């Protein structure tokens, strides 16, 4: 994918910023070594090389690499702890090289190239390395440059470095402090970098659309997740237990709400937890449980009770936001989740539209269907002024009356051709000219 923008009003030429192709890397290195005042040096860690072209002519080069391990003004601006910095540093990229080639000089070109590069930097990084970039940083030699192009591209100056450079395992004072510039690539970049629990990260992948930030939900104290989980019965023998049941389940819940969809993903998410966060989750150790431990413990639990308890707890946290929000009622048959000769289980779930959280769930017995189960599913939920959505199966007069009269909610159901009388009645009402109103429920 190329990103294009007009260079100026008096020319039809366009500017393209794209990653360097494998066969172009030697040329990129030669030009950088010949024209940049620092020359070319291998870029440390994860890196991306870019070229800006105008009508296939190379006009600028950019190199991105790993963020500085330590930078006092940047670290103070973010507000993270040393342990968090160590784990979240991959979410920052450093613009280690930026070169406008001699034949490419034109007013405003540098700031335009920077702006175009930043638009695609995080998606490209995720494509190559599997994670987004939240913050871009760079270091400008104030004795040589004023950082005008960075300022024009929306970067923010934070202050000066202390004049040290990393050499092997130590630091060497070079006596040339540089100005630190940063540019958030997400509006919540600072919060995401310093949050105790790794929140859902911005992503272009569809599977990351429905996630919950556990930093905004209570963990400890009355009504917290830990208090709720203490009611669970540990199925393991006490001897040899290293990780409390509360810790194992709390990690699994938090990771799932943050987007983890497998035991491996839960274990990977847990590796980012600090010792203090593990302590808050009830752990007596400074390392999280391994993937086999998570798998064994969770598979031994009473899944139905755990699902009900977590659903009720999540509902209490989300209840203040239910007014005016959507709650989907959806039934799914779990293919393959049964023994031979048995019918696969069918579950009816109530799911918050925005968060994608299942707040209630019931098994539909083989001799019945979803219609009589829906009132039982919604009975314990505080749904006043919420909007219940469902497919055509639930377009029933009794269901509609229950939602409106008993739960004091609204509904949005589908009407298909097999309900011809109802469909014609709706057509006769000419609802396209009917203004929606809380005082007129249908």
Explain what the structure shows.
- The chain is an alpha+beta fold and 442 residues long.
- The chain has three domains: 3-194, Gcn5-related N-acetyltransferase (GNAT) (Aminopeptidase); 206-301, no CATH class; 322-433, Nucleotidyltransferase, domain 5 (2-Layer Sandwich).
- The protein is built from 15 helices and 15 strands.
- The strands form three sheets. The protein has an eight-stranded mixed sheet, sandwiched between helices. A five-stranded mixed sheet has the order 13-12-11-14-15.
- A hairpin with a 5-residue loop joins strand 12 and strand 13.
- The protein is globular.
Topology record:
Blueprint: E1 3-6, E2 14-19, H1 25-35, E3 48-54, E4 57-66, H2 72-78, H3 82-88, E5 92-100, H4 109-129, E6 135-140, H5 148-152, E7 156-160, E8 164-167, E9 170-173, E10 179-184, H6 189-194, H7 225-229, H8 245-257, H9 263-270, H10 275-280, H11 291-300, H12 303-318, E11 326-333, E12 346-352, E13 358-363, H13 370-378, E14 387-390, H14 397-406, E15 410-413, H15 420-429
Parallel strand pairs: 5-6, 11-14, 14-15
Antiparallel strand pairs: 1-2, 2-3, 3-4, 4-5, 6-10, 7-10, 8-9, 11-12, 12-13
Helix pairs in contact: 8-9, 8-11, 9-11
Radius of gyration: 28 Å
Element order, helices and strands? Answer: EEHEEHHEHEHEEEEHHHHHHHEEEHEHEH
Largest sheet: 8 strands, mixed
The general outline is: globular
What's the short version?
By secondary structure, the protein is of the alpha+beta class.
